[in-house]
Amino acid sequence: MTLRLWENPWRLMLAVNAAVLIGVFWHKIALPPYVPYIHLLVDYHFGFTKRALIGAIVSLFTAKVPVWLVFALAGTVWLVTAGLFVQLFRRTFGFDEKHLPLFVFMAGSPFFLKNFMHTLGHFDIYGCLFAICLLLIPARSLAYVTLAAMFSIALVLIHHIHLLMYVPTIAAIVVLRHYLVHGADRQNVAVGIASLGAVGVLFIAAQFYGTMAVPEAEFVAYLQGRMADPSQANLLSFGYIWYQPLSKEIWDTWQRLPHNLLGVPVFALLIWLHTPLWRYFRDLVAALSVDLHRHIVTAAIIMVSLGYLVMFAIVFDYSRWISNWAVCLFLILHAVKMLPASKETPAISADDRKTAVLGWIVTLIPRVGIVRPF
Question: Are 74 and 120 in contact (CB under 8 A)?
């Protein structure tokens, strides 16, 4: 088995990726720079509140929330997401030798599972998880559209920024998997428009009416009452975000913009390192047998990318946004592969030296980060 790993560099890259993942997890546990603990404490005690769904669910099972629950819950979600992605890749491409480079560039990307490990406790991964579920289940009826709407509603209740982060990708998956296959009759279109309207109304309610209506001291006192260890009150330092209006978020982002823009060349380099994957994606779209499908896929990618551009202007967690943008493209790629094609798309070359070098670099980069690169 060891000899086989050394003979096939792509298998060895997978083994190294596993070791890097363990290192990222150990670093996260041993030296946590920030534990998003407060999100498990906030619920609907004071009425409708943004970013409160996960905390409300946690409150159904325990009155006191320990800090370790952040890692236990986030780790479980990470494991489920990773397992479902492996199942998705197996179903879409298979795990034969010719598709190993594609799997390395996706699963081993510092944008994806490794960065989700670094951001344990943040809620980005729920959008990825729900999108993967929609790629795995059949898309035969309007129940599929309804389920996608329910997932989107849950995501907005978890964190309203999902309206820009993963809801557009979910919409793209529904269009590619359901509407392009079953057509856009009156009933289909009506359900789709109603779903988009419901998600949009909920976002407006969360964004503009989900702030805390009680004094901040009362809010913090309630959160302290839910802490299993009140001595760690420093973890409540981000309570102000439940009072901060959108205008203040935008102002903070633009104040940090000159410094954060220094990371853009690094992001561009990280994107370039995935060139073999992007070329495969381009060829996959070009091979589609229906011209309309190609145009819709292109429009979907533009729509998803525009959502992330808006997020760049509103919230300054740039490393998270660029990472999730790449993950959204990985997921759309799977949806495109499920569409009818006029010819087989050549797999990423496993023998190309430059591709192998890029694969090793992607493998060895542990993660992208949260705000600034690394």
Answer: yes
| Separation of alpha carbons 10 and 6, rounded Å | 9
CA distances from 329 to 173, 253, 254, 297 (A): 11, 25, 27, 11
Residue 281 DSSP label: H
Q: Is the pLDDT of residue 157 over 70?
A: yes
DSSP letters along 103-121, please?
HHHHHT-TTTHHHHHHTTT
CA dihedral 95, 97, 99, 102 (to 10 degrees): 110
pTM for this one? Answer: 0.94
What pLDDT digit, counting tens, does each position of 35-93 carry? Answer: 889 999 999 999 999 999 999 999 999 999 999 999 999 999 999 999 999 999 999 99
Q: Which residues, including other chains, have CB under 8 Å from residue 288's CB and lie 6 or more apart?
A: 294, 297, 336, 339, 340, 341, 342
Q: Can you tell me whether residue 350 is helix, strand or coil? A: coil
**Which structure tokens are listed for 277?**
């994957």
Q: What are phi and psi of 341, to 5 degrees?
A: -120, 150
- The two three-digit tokens of residue 70, written as one number: 């952040």
Measuring CA to CA, how many Å separate 139 from each of 119, 133, 298?
31, 11, 21
